[in-house]
Amino acid sequence: xxxxxxxxxxxxxxAITLLAQKGDAARPLAGGTDVLVQLRVGRxxxxxxxxxxxxxxxxxxxxxxxREGLYLGAAVACCHVYxxxxxxxxxxxxxxxxxxxxSVQIQGRASVGGNVCNAAPSGDxxxxxxxxxxxxxxxxxxxxxxxxxxxxxxxxxxxxxxxGEILVAVRIPAPAPNSGAAYLRFIPRNEMDIAVAxxxxxxxxDSAKQRITSARVALASVAPTPLFVTAxxxxxxxxxxxxxxxxxxxxxxxxxxxxxxTDMRGTIEFRKQxxxxxxxxxxxxxxxxxxxx
Amino acid sequence: MTTTAPAPExxxxxxxxxxxxxxxxxxxxxKYAADIQMAGLLSAKILRxxxxxxxxxxxxxxxxxxxxGVRAVITAADIPAVASDRxxxxxxxxxxxxxxxxxxLAGNKVLYKGQAVAAVAATSAHIxxxxxxxxxxxxxxxxxxLNVLDAMKDGAPLLHEDMLMQEFGQRTTKxxxxxxxxxxxxxxxxxxFKQADVVVEREFNTAAVHQGYIEPHAATANWNVDGKLTIWxxxxxxxxxxSQVATLLKIPESNVKVIxxxxxxxxxxxxxxxxxxxxxxxAKKTGHPVKAIMSRTExxxxxxxxxxxxxxxxxxANKEGRITAAEVSLMFEAGAFPGSPVNAGAMCALACxxxxxxxxxxxxxxxNKQKTAAYRAPGATHAAMAVESVVDELCENxxxxxxxxxxxxxxxxxxxxxxGPAFGKVGFMEVLQAAKNHPHWKTPLTGKNRGRGFAxxxxxxxxxxxxxxxxxxxxxxVSLIEGxxxxxxxxxxxxxxxxxxxGIPADxxxxxxxxxxxxxxxxxxxxxxVAFKGGLAAYEAAQDLKKQLIERAAKxxxxxxxxxxxxxxxxxxxxxxxxxxxFTELAGRLLTTGGPLAGRAxxxxxxxxxxFAAVIADVEVDPETGKTQVLRATxxxxxxxxxxxxxxxxxxxxxxxxxxxxxxxxxxxxxxQGTMANPTFLDYRMPTALDLPxxxxxxxxxxxxxxxxxxxxxxxxxxxxxxxxxxxxxxRAIGVRMTDLPMSPGAVLAAIQAKGNGKR
Lengths: 293, 760
Hints:
The complex is a heterodimer of chains A (293) and B (760).
Chain A: E1 5-7, H1 12-22, E2 26-29, H2 35-40, E3 49-52, H3 57-60, E4 62-65, E5 69-73, H4 78-82, H5 85-90, H6 92-98, H7 104-107, H8 112-118, H9 125-131, E6 135-140, E7 143-148, E8 153-155, E9 158-159, E10 166-172, E11 179-186, E12 197-205, E13 212-220, E14 227-228, H10 230-234, H11 244-257, H12 268-290
Parallel strand pairs in A: 1-3, 2-3
Antiparallel strand pairs in A: 4-5, 5-10, 6-7, 6-10, 8-9, 11-12, 12-13, 13-14
Helix pairs in contact in A: 6-9, 11-12
Chain B: H1 22-26, E1 42-48, E2 54-60, H2 62-66, E3 70-75, E4 87-89, E5 94-96, H3 97-104, E6 109-110, E7 116-122, H4 125-132, E8 136-141, H5 148-152, E9 164-167, E10 170-175, E11 178-186, H6 189-194, E12 198-206, E13 218-223, E14 229-233, H7 238-249, E15 256-260, H8 276-286, E16 290-293, H9 296-302, E17 309-317, E18 323-335, H10 342-349, E19 358-366, H11 380-398, H12 402-409, H13 428-436, H14 439-442, E20 450-459, E21 464-472, E22 478-482, H15 490-502, E23 509-513, H16 530-556, E24 564-567, E25 570-573, E26 580-582, H17 583-589, E27 598-605, E28 611-621, E29 628-638, H18 645-664, E30 695-700, H19 722-734, E31 740-741, H20 745-756
Helix pairs in contact in B: 7-8, 10-11, 11-19, 12-13, 15-16, 18-19
């Protein structure tokens, strides 16, 4: 029997103090779509306190600034992200991921920050955010720090937050001119499922929109953590947007980097195949978006 | 759409009134089994086996019983011993009583992971759950037999050491996991194959799939000091629960009252008891009412799916397209106890075709998995996946149109099934013609990696006993009392049949499903029987009432009944028709002219009309990922007579939806250790709304002569053709014939790659 205490601090400072005091016995709560399920099935037996972060202004803010880029408070629900006209226009690659987590009802509660903190290998927003060069703004008892998204997850269900630390916001730079991004995942059904494999990609094109200046590719569900594949991006730098061989080389690099397992959701072979296919398809969409087509 | 215009002779039958139970369900007021609340109610939780196969050496419940808040702990020792091999009818299947008892609470052995071993009643669900962790069960773990072919091998671990194989109706001396091997034979298949120009032989495997009803099992029991037991539960058969519980607990049936709640789906899975005897025993032991609710995981792990299977089909045809011979072997995983639906599957396998030379072998095989239960046309979908795939391949080899081939070989009135019975009036030809004429079939399918498949299916349908009571109210409405759980809109369908006889609108009938003490015996909601048998009972009860009303009108007019005519809700005095009374007027006068009136009937409906259906499915397969999308699906089905066409269409669409789920992604995914790895709706993938196209329906009406309105059952046959139709469509889309279910993306991709490597 698990008796729970629920608290809803109004300031970041109070939340940090509380979490630092309670240690592993406390768990931050945003939408609760992961943590409540985990508690119910007994997967977090040490937790006796839920710290609701939705009353803290820094965590519920969603704003865009042409110089600073996007400030995405960690407790902002997916539906607020994809219903925001500016975010839709500036970050279609993030929208791809936010729109397919769970179901419409889930998206009304689930936050992007929660998806990141849950640190599932299959977390859909994480590869999309890595592709977009997002950073994590963290606050804790010893002050604040910022880390690249690709360093945030450390193992299945684990992230680098230290005792008392909170993911306050995800920040995404303003999109470079002539850039585009996309996220695709493969699931056997068409909704309410977990990625068998997922790929986020972004590209920046030259001013003529003919050549790829730089690219970033990240993968879901094929390693203990979402995986940033620098080799895939390198395979594309300087190549023509129509260079299918380069895109295939990026896909091959992604397949080579993937180290999936076989489980009920897919075999190693199947997942590797999917990574190749999805990398190609995601890059095509990202390039198309960058060209404004 | 219906192929026939609304019958002008009817005023209610064939219309689409709002269902009587709709409002409560839409606004969330309908009471389901888990909604039952009462003073002093205790919560029960079930301890389940962590092993697929183990001997129970001892169970120590003392620590659990000592936990504050715990009121009782029970094990199989609390169930009266059942020594005999007496059979207990479950409606669509049957089981030996001692096996049913072991499935409720395991005796000396556990035979699947998830089997109930002990139960606790406590003042809260949390305490009950905590108490489960204090029960110490000492298991001697045994090697399991985890799939049908392994379990059939000599030397396989035996689930039931004392079980002797039954073969061709005789008990052999062989100890085996094969509970039964039987054969149906007609003509001489070997001779038939000699006449064949084309022979196709294929093997098929299908995974166990669950009915997936949205409402988990729940039951509440109260055992009074006078020995009267009341049970509230979600069931497809309240009288069935009454008899199972009474027999298992060795108490008189008349001491048990079963109150059926609203039911959130069953599809065959809510016929056998699981929780009901357990909460009854806990209620007896504690003197309190006790409620148990299963979690979804318990539903998956502790209740019956439909079997996994291995099947082999060989069929031959001559150049003219006549099937000359067929041989079918069906090996079904019964689960922990004998009683898979392999018999029904074997009888349905070749039922669509008029064959001179055919043989069907069936094997009922126990394995260390959940005891299987009925699921919508039990056994027929498996068999159709195999037979309809082979028929499709014959058509390909002969370059024949799949519908024309079936018109040439399909059964008509008078033809005999391989297992013996001859068909009465059936509508298979009409179904095939309607499919052939449908715009879906006539519109070419274009586009890469797309294909169209066709498959047919048969289901017997069932009848049986049903009772109905119709009481007149003073305002001209009637109250209709019935005993069959309403799962698919049968309250409306039954009320409409009474309304038709009484000449009143359907909304003047208030139908209520009542408990086992409040209506005559009514058999279960299964076998697509309720609109047929319940409708017949309502028809007879309404006729009984009508006769009495005519007599009352005669009495009021001081004449004899033969001088009163009843037409369109009006009583008229013959011959001049000067005096008239409406139904409502007469209703208002009953109490002052001789007292209230009610009609009643208890029937044993035997004139069952079997059902045929055909499905056209268009698919697109992504050759790089193996993912299949069903683009368009049409089902054509003979309903006999669609009482409420919307609910018939709903059944047809629901059956196709479940069939597509079975075809593409649903499966019990077992680890090598015999654990179901996906006991949640996240990883047990039923189709969502986004996974299905709008499913077109065509109701064909070839009246069943055994029912006053021509009703055939409609609930089950629509699930039979879809998996084969999808497989046949995939063959045309990507050139790969899939023989194993589910045809999930990984499996399809592997098959595409194997073909590319020349291995297929």
